[in-house]
Design a protein that fits this description.
The protein is 81% helix and 0% strand. The chain contains twelve helices and no strands. α7 crosses α8 and α10 runs antiparallel to α11. The relative contact order is 0.16.
Length: 436
């Protein structure tokens, strides 16, 4: 009974915490996407380069910090730092500083914010939960984040007339601080779950020999933890030494690449069709809300049974097929309506199915890899994919237009599917791994 209570508490608190995190980000996302279209679209690859440079600094700094401090207890501190940054941007927006320069810095910072806070939150969950419990709870927790993506734009729409864009940043900082409270609650509930002798050790494992199978157990958060040691590039070193983690990097690079192709298609279509900034913001907000609704359906009705029945490998294969189909349709019929449908389905698949499946992959790696290697993959890996694919897209368009972009996406999708298969097999091996 205590075990069930603890799991229910983790699901509720995790969902509320993730909702606060994504509400904090999504509150200013439509404005950011509309603002970037005011400038020359050819400058977007340079902003991607700046973002990659930023995460290449932040991720090693995080790894170096973890070398000297407790990992689970470092997550709330990271949220505090980003909340302070938002207060700084609030002051910058209200100052006489050049607004275009502030906007460019804010665009880069927001990209780092989105990847970093989400990454460290899932690192904490992967640390506290084993794969068996994660399969049960990741869907509902991810659904909480989707609710947050609805709450954020709604709060902005209701309050921006009163508090202004600068006030939205303070509101976002407040939501982030609320998430800190949720993190402490999740840690307490997970510690109680770990103490429960009846805790679910994970999915049933086939017996391959007479030796006992080693269970994968969550780490007790109520016990003191020594600093991890290592250095700033320990997370990257973990990735280089592990074929499993390297395969996750490959999947992330493919994800980022095709998503960037679609992003540039979106930018060109919206810039040509909608001139007014407010109308652009409204269009992006509408797409975000529709995407959130479909994502919520996938997370609550599909993600848990799909992961339980098929495992993460097959679930990860859905996104490559969806994105390649969407890119092909959009190239054949480039319009706002088609763009909206393609983006809603593609992004809902990303957040509703792929996100829980990809996070499940990290429940079967070491504790240090969950915090340091995972963060390097989610930040440096993803933004490197953005950077690489932005220039690749530019070259493909110069060679053969949109048709060349779709043609370039075909081999990427094939490789993408291959990585999904490899990761599914690797996850199964790690779950059923015998002691040495």
């Amino acid at each position: 009974m205590e075990n069930r209570r603890a799991k229910l508490e983790i699901a509720i608190l995790g969902a509320v915490t993730f909702a606060a995190l994504l509400a904090s980000y999504s509150a200013f996302r439509p404005v950011r996407d509309a603002l970037i279209l005011d400038g020359d679209l050819d400058q977007i690859p340079w902003l991607f380069l700046a973002t990659f440079a930023a995460v290449s600094v932040v991720s090693p700094m995080w790894s170096a910090f973890l070398a000297k401090h407790s990992r689970p207890r470092s997550v709330p501190l990271a949220f505090h730092v980003f909340a302070v940054c938002e207060v700084g941007f609030f002051l910058a927006v209200r100052s006489p500083l050049d607004k275009i320069s502030v906007g460019h810095v804010f665009y880069v910072w927001s990209a780092v914010f989105n990847l970093f806070v989400v990454s460290v939150f899932w690192s904490l969950l992967a640390d506290l939960l084993g794969p068996g419990i994660a399969k049960q709870l990741y869907g509902p927790i991810a659904a909480g984040g989707t609710v947050g993506t609805m709450i954020g734009p709604l709060l902005t729409k209701l309050l921006v007339g009163t508090i202004g864009p600068a006030g939205v940043l303070l509101m976002s900082a407040g939501l982030l601080e609320f998430a800190v409270i949720g993190v402490y609650g999740v840690r307490r509930a997970a510690a109680r779950l770990d103490r429960d002798p009846g805790r679910d050790p994970g999915p049933a494992r086939p017996e391959r020999s007479e030796r006992p199978v080693r269970p994968i157990r969550p780490v007790r958060d109520d016990q003191p933890e020594a600093p991890a040691g290592g250095g700033a590039f320990t997370g990257i070193a973990h990735v280089g030494k592990s074929p499993y983690l390297s395969a996750i990097v490959g999947y992330v690079l493919c994800t980022s690449c095709v998503a960037t192709f679609l992003y540039f298609q979106q930018a060109g279509i919206v810039k040509a069709a909608i001139v007014d900034r407010a109308a652009r913001t409204e269009y992006f907000a509408t797409v975000d809300l529709c995407m959130s609704g479909l994502t919520l359906i996938l997370q609550t009705l599909i993600a848990r049974p799909a992961l339980g029945r098929f495992g993460p490998g097959l679930v990860l294969m859905v996104l490559p097929l969806t994105q390649l189909t969407g890119l092909s349709i959009l190239a054949a019929a480039p319009s706002l309506a088609v763009l909206a449908v393609v983006q809603v389905i593609g992004r809902a698949t990303t957040h509703g199915l792929t996100r829980p499946a990809r996070e499940l992959l990290f429940t079967v790696v070491s504790r240090d890899e969950k915090y340091r290697a995972k963060n390097a993959i989610d930040t440096i890996g993803y933004r490197f994919g953005d950077l690489l694919s932005s220039w690749l897209q530019k070259g493909l368009v110069a060679v053969g237009g949109v048709t060349a972009v779709v043609g370039g996406a075909l081999p990427i999708a094939a490789i993408w599917l291959g990585f999904a298969f490899i990761l599914g097999a690797g996850f199964r091996r790690r779950v059923t791994k015998e002691p040495a």
